[in-house]
Specification:
six-stranded mixed sheet, 4 helices, 6 strands, Metallo-beta-lactamase, Chain A, alpha/beta, 20% helix
Amino acid sequence: AALTVLWPPGNVWSTEDNDNSVAVRLDVGDWRAAFLGDLPAHTEEALNLGPLNLLKVGHHGSRHSTGAALLAAARPADAVISVGRNTYGHPHPDVLGRLAARNTRTWRTDQSGTITWPLP
């Protein structure tokens, strides 16, 4: 198994806090997951994740994260959205729609509580 820090690429490079969010990938044999922190879609596209089994959706399902380009490249079978009561409208219907369009099963902490994922 390997845990790889994908982002940020080095020193803090942006004045926008979310652009500096930590993103990691977990590889266990052929099984792969990515955890995107609060990254916006324009930063996600720089990650080059490749196919994923599991995606922790960026920024609680913000409209500005988990973009179509990332989903087309990653093709996650499952996605987890860490979200609770909020005034931002997270997860945004656009993100839920993008996940549904890719037939990605979506798991939400506001609906399911703690989500535990078994590793292969």
